[in-house]
Amino acid sequence: MPGFGALANEDEQAPDGWQGIKLGQAFERVQRTISLNVEDVLSITATFGFVQQKDKFSRIIAGQKLKRYILLKKGEFAYNKGNSKTYPQGCVYMLEDFDKAAVPNVYFCFRPRNNEIYGNFYKFYFENSFLNHQLQKVINTGVRNDGLLNLHPNDFFNIRIKVPSISEQKCITRVLTTATNEVNNLEKKLKALEKQKRGLMQKLLTGEIRVK
Fold first, then answer.
1. Domain for residue 48, yes or no?
2. How far apart are CA 183 and CA 189, in angstroms?
3. What CATH number is associated with residue 129?
4. Position 57 in a domain
5. pLDDT tens across 172-211, in order?
6. Helix, strand, coil in percent for the chain, rounding step 5
7. In this structure, what are the phi and psi dihedrals at residue 46, rounded to the nearest 5 degrees?
8. What is the per-residue pLDDT across 130-147, written as a single tens digit (0 to 9) for each?
9. I want to staple 118 with a disulfide (CB 3.0 to 4.6 A). Which of 43, 125, 169, 193 is the partner?
10. Alpha-carbon distance 184 to 21, whole Å?
11. Burial class of residue 118 in the structure, from the number of CB atoms within 10 Å of its CB (0-12 exposed, 13-18 middle, 19+ buried)
12. Beta partners for 80?
């Protein structure tokens, strides 16, 4: 995957065949309002991405603001400009587990402009903080009273991104998806072994199992 490490720095020369363009040239902003039949009302957490408000807060916190929420569809993105330890400059996630959902209108929502922009490639791109270097430059100092970063939509969509050919985007995505699945499988095995170890310790330390 030549040049993948260069994604984080807009000043670094892109590999041959890769373009450097503004985010707003590759993606268009989504600002559609919700309809009354949207059942899923979501927020973004830095650690888990999209979560149901009723699960995170034990209730839907939108209240009267719900009618101003944005209708996001599967495969579209939302940038939450709330800072966190994991993502000090905010985080971008792609909606994957819902066909459609209502999200707060303080999020900057967007979708690919055409078929030359592969959403799954940019899911990895955004989640791995490749926008942070530029976001640091355009975010105004300090955090607002509501905990959100001071960032104008125009500044966000003027951030520059790297764009490989569509075939290379898909190739990189396949490699990263395979690696992600392998890591997830190993983490599941590790959790199973840790559970097995705890059970064994319980039996050994209480004398249920005797060893000589």
1. yes
2. 10
3. 3.90.220.20
4. yes
5. 999 999 999 999 999 999 999 999 999 999 988 998 888 8
6. 40, 25, 40
7. -65, -35
8. 999 999 899 876 656 566
9. 169
10. 33
11. buried
12. 91
Beta strands at 19-22 and 160-163: parallel, antiparallel or unpaired: antiparallel
How many domains, in total, are found in the chain?
Answer: 1
Spatial distance between the Cα atoms of 14 and 161, rounded to a whole number of angstroms: 10
Confidence of residue 59 (pLDDT cuts 50, 70, 90): confident
State how far the alpha carbon of 9 is from the alpha carbons of 5, 67, 78, 130, 133, in Å.
9, 38, 22, 8, 7
CA distance 39 to 10: 39
Residue position matching structure tokens 């960032």: 151
In a domain, 135, yes or no: yes
Q: Which two tokens stand for residue 124?
A: 């990895």
Residue holding tokens 């957490």? 45
pLDDT in tens, 158-182: 999 999 999 999 999 999 999 999 9
Full-model pTM: 0.82
- 117/169 Cα distance (integer angstroms): 8
Domain range for 37: 4-164
Q: What is the mean pLDDT of residues 82-103?
A: 92
